[in-house]
Amino acid sequence: MTNSIDINQLVRKNIRELTPYQSARRIGGSGDVWLNANEYPTAPHYQLTQQTLNRYPEQQPEQVINRYADYVGVKTEQLIVSRGADEAIELLMRAFCEPDKDSIIYCPPTYGMYLVSAQTLGINCKAISQTADWQLDLTVIEQNLASVKLIYVCSPNNPTGNLLNPDDIKTLLAMTKGKALVIVDEAYIEFSAANSVVSWLANYPHLVILRTLSKAFALAGLRCGFTIANKPVIDALQKVIAPYPLAVPVADIATQALSHENLTTMKLQVRNLNKLKERFIDKLDSLNIVERIYPSSANYILVKFNDPQVFNYCWQHGIILRDQNKQIGLENTIRITIGTQAECDAVIQALTHFERQEGK
């Protein structure tokens, strides 16, 4: 007979109380149309060229760093590559925040991992809600800077899709100089490339930018992200990152994705997807159950419906979207990733059937 042991009593208190991030895959679902994770709708094709799997990889693969630095126009010393931007979010906290002493600010509705990472590490969180038009509430942020080391903002913002006002970001940088780092999460910036703040690095030593290959590069399964910052920030992150963050196959494919030819392909795919998004919006706009379609500078759109059953109806019919109803200020909203033409048509067809069924 095995003695009963309560392992839970050994778990850290903050982890016992933690609500984990509900990723698209964790939530699950069953269907043929998956538009809930902001993935690029079609897969690229790469062949592995490196067969040195008996050796540990480079700590920071030189070809990946060189090519990404060239792509974004920064020095190699201003880059660190990690297992997705998610790891970078946490690395910044590990390097700059004292647990139970320092705080971060994040601005909901926004990406949930800023909060979950801080809670995991025992770092205090200050949630400063965005304004009614989903911009930074600078007045309230300024009133809450005590103990704050990191401020996470997302532009284009997930899940709302809007860009943050660049003048507001500059004001935020001015008020935090010498006090905190401002982290601008640009995971979706390729879909609105002219709005990147990377060129600001020379003027703002405390600016940090997060990037990824998951979205526009169609490599969500690769788990490869980048932190762009000035050298002192990168040096601090180098102290806390894992010894071998990128597996050899990951570095191999990332290097290929950042070739001149594949960068050209990526930019063409972005243009095509943005055109598809506009056509999809036009079709959605003709439906009576759609209350509002919010402007989007990303590869997804946030839609407010006048019937709370839309999400469940689509789910039950194999169309897996992302319910945002529990986020602050997002009642009856659904985030829809832009898929293929056929997937977008399937969404419109399902919504049209729902509308007729409800007699709206």
Keywords:
360 residues; alpha/beta; Aspartate Aminotransferase, domain 1; Aspartate Aminotransferase, domain 2; 7-stranded mixed beta sheet; 4-stranded antiparallel beta sheet; 12 helices; 13 strands; 36% helix; 16% strand
Q: Could you provide a short overview of the structure?
A:
The protein contains twelve helices and 13 strands. The model has no long low-confidence stretch (mean pLDDT 94). The longest helix is centred in the C-terminal third of the chain and has 26 residues, at 260-285.
The CATH architecture of the largest domain would be 3-Layer(aba) Sandwich
SS-based structural class?
alpha/beta
Task: Estimate percent helicity.
Answer: 25-40%
Strand order of the largest sheet: 2-8-7-6-5-3-4
CATH class group of the largest domain: Alpha Beta
Distance between the termini: 62 Å
- The CATH topology annotation of the largest domain reads as Aspartate Aminotransferase, domain 2
Give the overall form: globular
The largest sheet is: 7 strands, mixed
Question: What report would you give on this structure?
Answer:
The chain is an alpha/beta fold. The chain has 2 domains: 129 residues, Aspartate Aminotransferase, domain 1; 198 residues, Type I PLP-dependent aspartate aminotransferase-like (Major domain) (Aspartate Aminotransferase, domain 2, 3-Layer(aba) Sandwich), CATH 3.40.640. Helix content is 36%, strand content 16%. A 7-stranded mixed beta sheet has the order 2-8-7-6-5-3-4, sandwiched between helices. β5, α7 and β6 form a beta-alpha-beta unit. The longest helix has 26 residues.
